Amino acid sequence: MKNLTLKLGTLSLMALTIGLAGCGGTGATPPTTNGKIGLWTTTNVRTGSVYVQQDRLANPVVNEVLATFANNRHKINNLGAPTNDRAELATDVQSFMVGVAGRSQAITDVVKSVVIPDIMIADLSVPGSAAYLGVQTGGATGSMGGGRDLTDDVVDTTLGIVFGTTISSLGLAPADGNEIPTLTSDNVGAGGKHFTNSFPYLGSPR
After folding, report:
1. What is the 8-class DSSP label of residue 204?
2. How far lies 197's CA from each of 97, 106, 194, in Å?
3. Longest Cα separation, the chain
4. Which position has the higher pLDDT, 120 or 197?
5. In this structure, are residues 120 and 39 in contact, taking their beta carbons and an 8 Å threshold?
6. Cβ of 14: how many Cβ atoms within 10 Å?
7. What is the pLDDT of residues 36-94, one digit of tens each?
8. Is the distance from CB of 127 to CB of 117 less than 8 angstroms?
9. Which ranges of the chain does DSSP label H, i.e. alpha helix?
10. Domain boundaries in the chain?
């Protein structure tokens, strides 16, 4: 059996360092002004003497739902960098939102403005708790701090944006009447989440 060595989070740590330093130049596009940083993670497999990127993740559900496996679209985004998202992932979001989900172009444009590029933005200058997509939505998801709180229901938030009334309820685009309520939640209730008050904060599996 071939031994695989995994290297996790290379680019996210790089983005964090650059964000705190307030400079750029890595080929990525994380916000680094006024306390804002952009984060993502990669999974890299050791091949010979180098690590080869196999996967990329920032905002849950974005690439997993909005990019099809057909024509290797999902793989292309996994192997790319956030700098590629406006040319690559944005096309996938457009196709899915209009062609599959049947949403209006106005709602689609708002979704693209929120999830492209696929990076998790945190504003370290904002006091208080984190809130998933808080920076991109101007605090509509809870606070302007962005990032992700451990208890944030990130899947339901994203599904609500894609299939629900979140965009129109916030007044960001007119309702299009094409919502699919049954797809706005993963239906995992509070009983399926087990947190603790001390590190690592995630309880034992139930």
Report:
1. P
2. 39, 42, 11
3. 55
4. 120
5. yes
6. 17
7. 999 999 999 999 999 999 999 999 889 999 998 889 999 999 999 999 999 999 999 99
8. no
9. 10-21, 62-66, 73-79, 89-94, 105-115, 154-163, 166-169
10. 6-186
Beta bridge partner(s), residue 78 = none
Structure token pair of residue 161: 């944006």
**Whats the size of the chain, residue-wise?**
206
Please name the amino acid found at residue 156. D
Give me the helices (H) in 45-197, please: 62-66, 73-79, 89-94, 105-115, 154-163, 166-169
Q: What is the DSSP letter of 26?
A: S
Give the model's pLDDT for residue 128: 86
Which amino acid does the sequence have at 7? K
Q: H-helix or E-strand containing 6?
A: strand 6-8
For tokens 């208080």, the residue is 128
Determine the Cα angle at 99 with ends 95 and 105, to 5°: 75
Per-residue pLDDT band for 16 (boundaries 50, 70, 90) equals very low
Structure tokens, 152? 């944030």
At 82 the three-state DSSP class reads helix
Among residues 143, 123, 125, 154, which one has the least CA distance to residue 31? 123
Name, in order, each residue with C-beta under 8 angstroms of 55's C-beta and a sequence gap of 6 or more: 42, 43, 78
CB 41 within 8 A of CB 118: no
What mean pLDDT value characterizes the chain?
A: 84
